[in-house]
Amino acid sequence: MSTDVQVASNALVRIGANPISSFSEGGASGIAASNLYEITVKGVLSEYPWSCSKAKRQLARLTSVPLNDYQYAFQIPSGTLKVNRVFGTSNYKIFQDAIYANVSEMYIDYQFRAREETWPAYLQILMEYKLASEFALIVTNNEEQNMIYDTKYERYVKKAKFLDAQQTPNDAIESSPYRDVRS
Prior knowledge:
Blueprint: H1 4-14, H2 27-47, E1 54-58, E2 60-61, E3 72-75, E4 80-87, E5 92-95, E6 98-101, E7 107-112, H3 121-140, H4 143-165, H5 177-182
Antiparallel strand pairs: 1-7, 2-3, 3-6, 4-7, 5-6
């Protein structure tokens, strides 16, 4: 089970820096980790619907009525990084932390900030590469190392997405216009 500090430390070790034992450590390593870790993790988790950070939820309807265009407003769960899919309507708008629509119930699929201990190994490696890329220039002042880890991240993201996609079976084809025409 990894922690945020362990993931950040591994990224620092990858670029040849000393590991950290907390985000409050001084020096370039501590400053880079404490300032860039969380926003970088949220960014990577938002880029793709990673299995470990997906959730479904029925949204709570808000008592306030939207000013115009829509009849209902629904509260997006706190900690939501990205709404992936809205069920029951295609006519909706997201405003700040609410979804406006003309349906009385709302269900969504969304991305949230998954804790490090729930990440599969491939996602942790991907995060370490991304963090190493972000930390490299600050900690080592070596632009080449920054580019090396950025390239490693870009290459590994394809593998991580492939591995993550294996967690979910393929959707069955419900209808086939070509087959239906032949019937």
